[in-house]
Design brief:
The chain has 214 residues and is of the alpha+beta class. 40% of the residues lie in helices and 11% in strands. The protein has one domain: NADH Oxidase. It starts with 12 loop residues before the first helix and ends in a 23-residue tail after the last strand. Strands 1, 2, 3, 4 and 5 form a 5-stranded antiparallel sheet that branches. It is globular and about 45 Å long. The protein binds flavin mononucleotide (FMN).
């Protein structure tokens, strides 16, 4: 597939930025995702900034069914107790997120691909906020760009971190050198069922703005 053959929804930058949602139920589990599409989205992602321009990222793409199943198992082991605590909440909006998250947990092994953004290095326990911000700030903008790039081409994902409760075991599944390399998320990748998504409801802007003074 050459670049001109890659799918493109033709969305404006603002549309991409405001309609890239956590997609779970609308991940198309039956449609394969071409490697070129994933490569292209990562090519976009690695335009993101990194501290000292270190570009210490690595991107692990998982298509192998046995490895996806192993990662989904690890994800579930961390997700299930958490969802148990969260379910039964009073808020219907929050309950909808939990239901959607439970759906993803049940179907995670079926996604066409998983992408795990990694950053070389590990931050020591008890590290101060400045170092933690510089560390994660050197991979999270890129990971979000990856999700935006997927959206622009008609694919979707959901930011997930629950498998990181078993990060060492996941590293063993994938051969990632755990002691020297940090996984920061697990992004399921699939075409979306339909391509229409809307901006989400958020707390009013003025409730979070502070001009010159908190
Ligand atoms: C740091 C972080 C970690 C998250 N971890 C998970 C996760 O492990 N599983 C999951 O289903 N959703 C996870 N989410 C998604 C949120 O629970 C929530 O659904 C999302 O922020 C709502 O996005 P939306 O407004 O696009 O629907 C995570 C989001 C963030 C930013």
């Amino acid at each position: 597939m050459d670049d001109s053959a890659l799918p493109d929804l033709g969305l404006s930058a603002r549309e991409v930025l405001t309609t890239t949602r956590s997609v779970r139920r609308r991940l198309d589990l039956s449609r394969p995702v071409e490697r070129e599409v994933i490569r292209d989205a990562i090519e976009v992602a690695i335009q993101a900034p990194t501290g000292s321009n270190a570009q210490a990222w690595h991107w692990v793409i998982v298509e192998d069914p046995a490895k996806k199943a192993a990662l989904a198992e690890l994800y579930g082991a961390n997700a299930d107790p958490y969802f148990e605590i969260l379910s039964g909440t009073d808020s219907s909006q929050f309950q909808a997120i939990v239901d959607s998250a439970v759906y993803l947990r049940r179907h995670l092994h079926q996604v066409p691909a998983m992408v795990i953004p990694c950053l070389w290095g590990r931050i020591p326990d008890g590290v101060d906020n400045a170092m933690a911000a510089a560390f994660y700030g050197s991979i999270l903008p890129a990971a979000w760009s990856f999700m935006l790039a997927l959206r622009s081409r008609g694919l979707g994902s959901a930011w997930t971190t629950l498998h990181l409760g078993s990060e060492r075991e996941a590293a063993e599944v994938l051969g990632i050198p755990y002691d020297r390399c940090s996984q920061v998320a697990l992004l399921p990748v699939a075409y979306t069922v339909g391509t229409e998504f809307h901006p989400a409801r958020r707390a009013p802007l003025d409730s979070v703005l502070h001009w010159d003074q908190w």
